[in-house]
UniProtKB/TrEMBL annotation:
Domain named Transcription regulator AsnC/Lrp ligand binding: residues: 7-76
Protein name listed in UniProt: Lrp/AsnC ligand binding domain-containing protein
Pfam families: AsnC_trans_reg
Length: 95
C-alpha cells in the first residue's frame, strides 16, 4: 500500500464541491478541510506507486476549482489503528 498526502489549494468559493469531487475519486480515502495556508488535505491510498500518477495529476488536479497541489509520499506509518478500523468495515470474520 502506498500512501500520499496531497495538500490542495482551491478556489475559496468552491471548497465544499471540490472536496466532494476529490473524495469521490477512486484511491482517495479521506479529504479534510483545514485552516492555514491550505484549503484541503487528501489522503491517497493505492496498491502501487504508479497508480499515484493516475489519481493525482490525472484526476485530483483536474477537478474544477483545484488551483494547485503539493504531494508528500509517506515512507512509514507509525500508527495503524485508524487504517485497521477503516479496512475492517464491512468484512466478516475469517474473510
Amino acid at each position: 500500500m502506498v500512501t500520499a498526502i496531497v495538500f490542495i489549494k482551491a478556489d475559496v468559493a468552491r471548497i465544499p464541491e471540490v472536496a466532494e469531487q476529490v473524495a469521490a475519486i477512486a484511491g482517495v480515502s479521506e479529504v479534510y478541510s483545514v485552516t492555514g495556508g491550505l484549503d484541503l488535505i487528501a489522503m491517497i491510498r493505492v496498491a502501487h506507486h504508479d497508480e499515484l500518477a493516475t489519481v493525482i495529476p490525472d484526476r485530483v488536479n483536474r477537478v474544477p476549482g483545484v488551483l494547485s497541489t503539493e504531494t508528500h509520499i509517506a515512507f512509514r506509518a507509525y500508527s495503524t489503528h485508524d487504517l485497521e478500523a477503516a479496512f475492517s468495515l464491512g468484512q466478516e470474520d475469517g474473510v
